[in-house]
Design goal:
single chain; 283 residues; Fumarylacetoacetate hydrolase, domain 2; twelve-stranded mixed β-sheet; five-stranded mixed β-sheet; 34% strand; globular
């Protein structure tokens, strides 16, 4: 099942299930009790959403604007240095524990919405990632229990301002600029993906492959990340964990390959889909 949040031409925001190249509007069917996708996850309503997939679509998929599937996740967590290929690319030792970086909800856009290169930097880098969406509260869960807390998966483009990354040991400012990350195009529920480690990820810039990996190259797997984060966080339905990027980032190329106005960046993950975004310059 594919879950989206969307905006109609009359500016109404809703959420629903992608079906037959359209969207069944769950916010119309369930909205009195569950007005947003986040509230539906909190209310454990995936079965009700799954039942809607058999109904005729209410909207053509091309006639709405796709927003981030969860526009305001309670927590948006980036994991750094989580691919062995990227670790080797940087020439760094393997971290003893996951590198945890916060991102903020207003720093992300949805599928086909514009990524914005800030005025103050020309070092706007791409990072294609798997996003993991939490569906149940998780506190101090074991690795064996962790996957029971996962609602689904999506693509993420974790844009990073490399010069701001060097301002201090805190990476957060490099990932905080408005409209520098992209999330989508939808969430594919976990029942459709038996093992995320078996998926493949490709990032393209203007049609050219710049990153390509199997997710099995992760240093910490999805269940290991969920279990680790739940030690010091109470993970909530709607939280999003982005699991790190692989080698091929623009900052490690000669010359560096930065995102600029007029570019298009795509993150494709097998069994999920392709997240595609144009790049514009900040006015």
């Amino acid at each position: 099942m594919k879950l989206v949040t969307f905006r109609t031409r009359d500016a109404r925001i809703g959420y629903g299930v992608v079906s037959r190249n359209g969207i069944v509007d769950a916010s119309n069917h369930l909205g009195a009790d569950w007005p947003t996708l986040r509230s539906a996850l909190e209310g454990d309503q995936l079965d009700k959403l799954r039942n809607l997939a058999n109904l005729p679509p209410d909207h053509d998929l091309q006639a709405v604007e796709l927003l981030p599937p969860l526009p305001e996740p309670p927590k948006l967590i980036m994991i750094g240095l989580n691919y062995r290929a990227h670790q080797r690319e940087l020439g760094l030792p393997e971290p003893k524990n996951p590198v945890v970086i916060p991102r903020y909800a207003n720093s992300q856009v949805g599928h086909e919405q514009a990524l914005v290169r800030p005025r103050v930097s020309e070092q706007f880098d791409y990072e294609g990632e798997l996003a993991v969406v939490i569906g149940k509260r998780a506190r101090a869960v074991s690795v064996d229990q962790a996957m029971d807390c996962v609602a689904g998966y999506a693509c993420y483009m974790d844009g990073t301002l490399r010069d701001f990354q060097k301002h201090s040991t805190q990476v957060g400012p490099a990932k905080s600029f408005p409209a520098t990350g992209a999330f989508g195009p939808w969430i594919v529920t976990a029942d459709e993906i038996a093992d995320p480690a078996q998926l493949d990820l490709v990032t393209r810039l203007n049609g050219r492959i710049v990153q390509s990996t199997s997710l099995s190259d992760m240093i910490w797997s999805v269940p290991q990340l969920v279990a680790y984060l739940s030690v010091f966080l109470e993970l909530q339905p709607g939280d999003v964990i982005c699991t790190g990027t692989t080698s091929g980032v623009g900052s490690m190329r000669t010359p560096p390959l930065w995102l600029k106005a007029g570019d298009r960046v795509e993150v494709e993950i097998s069994s999920i889909g392709t997240l595609s975004n144009p790049v514009v310059a900040e006015e």
